């Protein structure tokens, strides 16, 4: 059983608090000196003139991500002191703290209780630290035999804001958002033999049934192949037909009373991408269970938005299919008719994401939302261009700008890419059908894919997030981002919805 962690916000001095580990931040001044960060002053005072020599004797530099854990002797009532580097004193941001908290969470040894004496002087920082701590502790152990790792049971956040209602609420909100990130990570990490469309959809329906409380709920509908045929969802059916596991389309509806605006979310839910008949090589198939990371993110975000009670209507579409080369598989050369009636000439069955998204986007448009955001592990080109930490963002100016602002608050990295006219022209350059699924030339594949999706959003304001790199961390943990599935975009989507709920600011 995983240990449940409780988070408590209170005023108080870290030099008078008795826990297993006391955590302070350390910053570097412009002169290059090390200094304790705000919140940790009493700890530094208790050490007096021994504080700086302690750090330098351990070659501590105060770099972001650096930690030092030492016994306190009788200097403090707590047994151990943990110093975490926060970098330059004038460069400490909310994001610095979120990442530091993630690193701290994994550096506590077998401590059961910890007090954080970090710069927690405003609710946003409280929220970032709790989010970072919870996400940094994440690990996926469902398939590991033997003992589960135990984690810290009690986290005390020492903060002058402890009596501020916003800060108290921030602790709760952070836990809701971090739980959503963990849920998206769990789904994405689950092996594809256990998580296929039917199971994924059923788990979402279960979540729908488990919602507690008296308020409005997220409604969950699962559309099966028969209904998808009635709706002429040729993309979802075409991609799904090569697999023994049938496709699904999950629709979530959150319509709270007094909603300010209506947001539509769409997420790519390929539970496994073998490439289909245009089969991938063995090595590029290896992590393709992650190809439903977009669906996992939009679903988890939708439940979080509801749990936070954000007054914005959300309709979420998660098309789910397994891309396999079975005897009934879609062929290069096939023509599919999508939900909105457009026909698509298939040229490469490995460009399956855009096909299932086309149906889902067309359905989202019919709800008449104010904006659509789709999230998809869509193109290898995006990973080449932006690496594993930065998502590609495409779409119209206002919607991409709003998403960029949301991502600045969530700390998730993204970068705008263009949709050039050249790609738009290439998408309709087919004699066979209305639209060409994949270009014959490889270059600019990320932009081409976006130009393809754009055909299905009509005039609705729209942004597209290509998370092919950022959905998966193939390296070691950094800050609050653990190895494997990252849950990328959950936090940004919740921030974006919160901004819509708050209404225009001017
Ligand atoms: N799921 C992949 C995208 C992907 C590739 C993510 C590599 C992470 C790493 C997607 O379905 C795909 O296969 N895209 C192809 C499209 C191409 C065949 C037009 C790609 O980008 O190579
Ligand atoms: Mn593919
Ligand atoms: Zn794919």
Automatic annotation (TrEMBL):
<feature type="binding site">
    <location>
        <position position="291"/>
    </location>
    <ligand>
        <name>Mn(2+) 2</name>
    </ligand>
</feature>
<feature type="binding site">
    <location>
        <position position="352"/>
    </location>
    <ligand>
        <name>Mn(2+) 2</name>
    </ligand>
</feature>
<protein>
    <recommendedName>
        <fullName>Probable cytosol aminopeptidase</fullName>
        <ecNumber>3.4.11.1</ecNumber>
        <ecNumber>3.4.11.10</ecNumber>
    </recommendedName>
</protein>
<comment type="similarity">
    <text>Belongs to the peptidase M17 family.</text>
</comment>
<dbReference type="InterPro" id="IPR023042">
    <property type="entry name" value="Peptidase_M17_leu_NH2_pept"/>
</dbReference>
<keyword id="KW-0031">Aminopeptidase</keyword>
<feature type="active site">
    <location>
        <position position="354"/>
    </location>
</feature>
<dbReference type="GO" id="GO:0030145">
    <property type="term" value="F:manganese ion binding"/>
</dbReference>
<dbReference type="GO" id="GO:0005737">
    <property type="term" value="C:cytoplasm"/>
</dbReference>
<dbReference type="Pfam" id="PF00883">
    <property type="entry name" value="Peptidase_M17"/>
</dbReference>
<keyword id="KW-0479">Metal-binding</keyword>
<keyword id="KW-0378">Hydrolase</keyword>
<feature type="active site">
    <location>
        <position position="280"/>
    </location>
</feature>
<feature type="domain" description="Cytosol aminopeptidase">
    <location>
        <begin position="348"/>
        <end position="355"/>
    </location>
</feature>
<feature type="binding site">
    <location>
        <position position="273"/>
    </location>
    <ligand>
        <name>Mn(2+) 2</name>
    </ligand>
</feature>
<feature type="binding site">
    <location>
        <position position="273"/>
    </location>
    <ligand>
        <name>Mn(2+) 1</name>
    </ligand>
</feature>
<dbReference type="InterPro" id="IPR043472">
    <property type="entry name" value="Macro_dom-like"/>
</dbReference>
<dbReference type="InterPro" id="IPR008283">
    <property type="entry name" value="Peptidase_M17_N"/>
</dbReference>
<dbReference type="Pfam" id="PF02789">
    <property type="entry name" value="Peptidase_M17_N"/>
</dbReference>
<feature type="binding site">
    <location>
        <position position="352"/>
    </location>
    <ligand>
        <name>Mn(2+) 1</name>
    </ligand>
</feature>
<keyword id="KW-0963">Cytoplasm</keyword>
<keyword id="KW-0464">Manganese</keyword>
<feature type="binding site">
    <location>
        <position position="268"/>
    </location>
    <ligand>
        <name>Mn(2+) 2</name>
    </ligand>
</feature>
<dbReference type="GO" id="GO:0070006">
    <property type="term" value="F:metalloaminopeptidase activity"/>
</dbReference>
<dbReference type="InterPro" id="IPR000819">
    <property type="entry name" value="Peptidase_M17_C"/>
</dbReference>
<dbReference type="GO" id="GO:0006508">
    <property type="term" value="P:proteolysis"/>
</dbReference>
<comment type="function">
    <text>Presumably involved in the processing and regular turnover of intracellular proteins. Catalyzes the removal of unsubstituted N-terminal amino acids from various peptides.</text>
</comment>
<dbReference type="InterPro" id="IPR011356">
    <property type="entry name" value="Leucine_aapep/pepB"/>
</dbReference>
<keyword id="KW-0645">Protease</keyword>
<feature type="binding site">
    <location>
        <position position="350"/>
    </location>
    <ligand>
        <name>Mn(2+) 1</name>
    </ligand>
</feature>
């Amino acid at each position: 059983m995983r240990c449940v962690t409780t988070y408590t916000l209170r005023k108080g001095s870290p030099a008078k608090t008795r826990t297993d580990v006391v955590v302070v931040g350390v910053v570097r001044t412009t002169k290059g000196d090390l200094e304790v960060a705000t919140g940790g002053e009493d700890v530094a005072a208790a050490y007096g003139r021994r504080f700086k020599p302690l750090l330098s004797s351990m070659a501590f530099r105060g770099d972001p991500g650096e930690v030092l854990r030492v016994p306190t002797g009788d200097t403090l009532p707590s047994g151990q002191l943990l110093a975490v580097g926060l970098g330059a004193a004038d460069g400490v941001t909310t994001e610095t703290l979120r990442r530091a908290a993630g690193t701290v969470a994994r550096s506590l040894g077998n401590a059961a209780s910890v007090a954080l004496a970090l710069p927690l002087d405003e609710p946003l920082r409280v929220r970032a630290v709790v989010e970072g701590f919870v996400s940094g502790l994440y690990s996926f152990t469902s398939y590991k035999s033997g003992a589960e790792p135990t984690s810290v049971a009690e986290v005390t956040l020492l903060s002058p804001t402890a009596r501020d209602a916003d800060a108290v609420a921030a602790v709760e909100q952070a836990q809701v958002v971090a739980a959503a990130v963990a849920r998206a990570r769990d789904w994405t990490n689950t092996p594809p033999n256990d998580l296929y469309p039917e199971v994924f959809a059923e788990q979402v329906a279960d979540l729908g049934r488990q919602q507690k409380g008296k308020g409005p709920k997220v409604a969950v509908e699962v559309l099966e192949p028969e209904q998808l045929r009635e709706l002429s969802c040729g993309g979802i059916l075409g991609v799904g037909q090569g697999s023994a596991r049938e496709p699904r389309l999950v629709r979530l509806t959150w319509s709270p009373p007094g909603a300010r605006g209506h947001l539509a979310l769409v997420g790519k839910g390929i539970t496994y991408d073998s490439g289909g008949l245009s089969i991938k090589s063995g090595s590029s198939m290896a992590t393709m269970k992650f190809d439903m990371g977009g669906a996992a993110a939009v679903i988890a975000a939708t439940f979080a938005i509801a749990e936070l009670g954000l007054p914005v209507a959300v309709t979420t579409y998660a098309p789910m299919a397994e891309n396999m080369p079975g005897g009934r598989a879609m062929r290069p050369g096939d023509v599919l008719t999508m939900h909105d009636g457009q026909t698509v000439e298939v040229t490469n069955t490995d460009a399956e994401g855009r096909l299932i998204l086309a149906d889902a986007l067309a359905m989202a448009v019919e709800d008449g939302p104010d904006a659509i955001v789709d999230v998809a592990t869509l193109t290898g080109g995006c990973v080449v261009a932006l690496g594993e930490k930065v998502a590609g963002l495409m779409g119209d100016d206002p919607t991409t700008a709003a998403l960029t602002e949301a991502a600045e608050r969530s700390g998730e990295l993204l970068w705008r890419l263009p949709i050039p006219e050249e790609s738009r022209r290439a998408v309709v350059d087919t004699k066979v059908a209305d639209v060409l699924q994949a270009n014959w030339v490889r270059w600019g594949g990320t932009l081409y894919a976006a130009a393809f999706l754009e055909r299905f959003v009509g005039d609705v304001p729209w942004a597209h997030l290509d998370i092919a790199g950022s959905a998966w961390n193939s390296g070691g943990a950094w800050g609050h981002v653990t190895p494997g599935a990252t849950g990328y975009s959950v936090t940004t989507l919740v921030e974006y919805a919160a901004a819509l709920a708050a209404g225009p600011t001017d």
